[in-house]
């Protein structure tokens, strides 16, 4: 493999994987914060407002990291993937441009009001600012997914004389069926992250025996949302996405399942390691006929294997594709199991005493992140060797003028920078969680920064004034 | 249609420089012009609620550029690879400097982020100025419409260009001084007492430097690229732009002497817009000149997206712009007036 190509792929893969750790929580937490604020308004209960403010503080830290790691993504289309941009900019410039105009302005303007403006705004106006931030983050998600969906399933374009593609139908681009299934699947995945994070922090408080009242609110909200969206993640969104792949990218499906040879009544591999050299699965654990049923709703249907396709059209990393897909699906199944049990216990009124399931919720924290990441790796590695499916190969898309050495230099730079950012993020969030949502000891924590605002009582202000030296 | 999008992108870039310019300028004087921690917090509070929204103009301008002139985006971003990556790192550092410093009151923590914030602001001003200098001077475009510039070569303005040469260093310094004045005046507008006076004095001291550099910049530009006068020769109305620039400088001084900081700050914004519009007017319809061979120039015509896309874009862009202006009007109204240290804030 050409080493400049490899470096540019790693460059994008590393920066986008790190970046997406943050927006998934932003997009997942935003609707849950709206739910908490709605409960606060409806029930006129200050507890819910405090809970919303606690999550807004974590949201704020998370959002900053999402913003600063997001800017390089837009830049890299030009810096590292200039041949791709020149080829496809006439089409995907539409969705990327709209993201800036509709989502970024909305988010950035209302984030300030949402995080700093609670005192200046009426409760209802502040609720609207939370809704605006929620809408902005979800719009942003849509335009990015629509861009990726066009690369997976190009529609609404014509080939121009200079070899580039240009927009021919705006509505075909925006209403790309791939975009809508992928968006539904992706956003549901984001809410799963938000729900698990909320439930996990709640479980932590309950097990710790501190901030117990908030722990219950968090676990209840997290489990309710987690159950709904874990199920939606499998059906209909995951199923719909899967069938689009079966119809439009059959070679990708075969590689995801490591199905080397075409067969009727194809089995579903639960566990096993693909041995690409010998074209078989080592140590397989299978469900006979299940793949045929899931793909075509018929137990004996024939599913095309990799042998049907020329090798230069196979995804370039079959093993990674197979594992990321299986990790995603396996974890998705575990999420449903945990949430069904937790929801059942919640319904029976036993959840808060069942320490073992609280432990499960607590320890589940990293897994939605892994599942979401694995899902994106499945989508992006599955599209290989194409950068734009069937139109442009990845090997033709990178910046030929940027040498491997220059790419390596900035890749290492990003690795260093992101290590520092990760440490800062974990440090600050851990601190917020330990302080907890209770606002009684507000004076202890003053003066907080922009994004970790607490409501100040005059007495608390006086108590805190001596700490104002920063 | 290409001309319309050229103007739109130019206006968005100008909006970014005027808006985020005062955040950057405030960052430049942040350590030098403050004596106490309280004063530093006042500056933070002045830019805190708006800096992120201001920075979005850069992203939106970038998105619009990508959409309207994909080839220009592809060619220039890959050609300016190294400095752009450094700009990204600096933007990240600036962002976390502002947002994370107030999460802890430990003086070591705060001091660390203070320095990060201020140093990255200084460097960003210089980088942006050097970037503009590169676009005016031209880059070594090849027949395939790509190029790659190392950070420096021999510091001469020739065909073997680096990002930095004597001309782009000059434009970097012009940008630094301009944005420092701009940011100082913003701080003066937003603060009271001693800090207000000190910020205004910084701007007053820098004013003669800015005047001198403006003249030097104009002379240098005409010297290295006589073609910049062509559009002015054909459309004498263009000479209104330099008149506007020097007029704005005069009003700035007048505002500072009269201590009407708002007037001086607005004049500084007009000066910046004038300088950028003047450069755009001189370049049009070229968007990236070739230092090697003028027939290789990238223009709005050979870099634009397809006609259908540009027409469709005008619809959603207008809608998005109206919405964005609405948000900003609302936001700046919410945070208008002098900053106070009580209550919520940075």
Characterize the structure shown:
The complex is a heterodimer of chains A (470) and B (346). Chain A contains 15 helices and eight strands. With 470 residues, chain A is mainly alpha-helical. Chain A has one domain (3-262, 304-438). In chain A, the strands form four sheets. In chain A, strands 1-2 form a two-stranded antiparallel ribbon. In chain A, a hairpin with a 4-residue loop joins β4 (268-275) and β5. Chain A is globular and about 65 Å long. Chain A starts with a helix and ends in a 6-residue tail after the last helix. Chain B has 346 residues and is mostly helical. Chain B has one domain (2-334). Chain B contains 13 helices and two strands. Chain B has a two-stranded antiparallel sheet with strand order 1-2. The radius of gyration of chain B is 20 Å and the shape is globular. In chain B, 56% of the residues are buried. The mean pLDDT of chain B is 91. The chains are: A mainly alpha (470), B mainly alpha (346). Chains A and B meet through α3, α4 and α14 of A and α2, α3, α4, α5 and α13 of B.
